[in-house]
Amino acid sequence: MLPLFVWHNKVLNISRLIVRSLACVCALANLPAFCSKLLLIKVNEMVANKNLVLKHPKVAVITGSSVGIGFETCLLFARNGIHTYATMRDLVKADLIKNIAEKEKLPIQVIQMDIDKDHSVVDAFEEICEDNEKRGVGIDILVNNAGFGLFGALEDLLIDDIKKQFETNLFGAIRTIQQILPVMRNQRSGIIVNISSLAGYIGFPASSAYVSTKFALEGLSESLAYEIEPYGISVVLIEPGVISTSFVKHIILPYNTLPISSSLLPSSSPSSSLTAASSSLSKDSTKFSDKLKSREITKYANVVERFLSHYYPAMRNAPDPKEVAKVVLESVEASIDSARQGDHNFFRYPVGEDAKLYADAKRKMSDQELHSFVAKRTLI
Length: 380
Description:
Strand content: 5-15%
Number of strands: 9
Shape: globular
CATH superfamily of the largest domain: NAD(P)-binding Rossmann-like Domain
């Protein structure tokens, strides 16, 4: 079944044909020319009014919906009439969004989904598709938002923790995309929104693992756009700068870097929730972990400390995640407008002054100039 906004486009095309036919009838009947012109004007007004499309219910699936950008995007979508499946790994964290949805009568359904696990993603999408089939709708929008940050010097990171970083930030997105593509391909429409970062186009010190997952997500999105464009599916990259979320609480750091991080966080902050890298380790990686623990402090203390001394204050003074949610909704509106005109392009949206500044620098500067620019802003 085609989504409602696609049926809406078909109706508008039929309306144009009807108007042209009526114009011919007016001419044959010697009626004033303004009659047919008036009809054309009215139909064109319908086409130009993008809010008309958004009044029709659409369906969205959003990952990482318990807090931050995912949480705010769910609420904003639902408040704009989009039936939203808020997915999250831990349903214990679902109380707040459930309470708000119940109070405001919002079309939000909370679904358990751990994007790190194949079976969890498959089960979640089966549940969503079964529910949608009963309501006679498809899935129009996927927002891949779930992720976390593994920071610290590359030499200090355990390979298993780097794999975990890729498992969530990259392979989690791939899992959801693979599940939703058959649905969108069959309905020949859809929008995939991947929440990337300014770290998806700029490398930063002390965050090589995190940055590499975002660079990979950007490359994946660009390549995917060519494959799915013939099926009427668009890809959107949202590239926030530093945003005031709970991201810092969930940052994972090597054992020999935690003291540096804790010293930079004010006593009122939840520094105790910063996690030491601790994957399920093999015998070899356990030996390597013990070696790291034996170091009093990282050999890269100077670089790590300088970077975190810039990053933590920036996080506290950063824009609200609601600002990112607004851009996500705007990107969906723009994609719908583009699809209405027969275009299914690739879209990229930096969010925040810092993201726009770095994006502009990336376009205009040489590699050497960009390296110096980043170093001056993060290491001095």
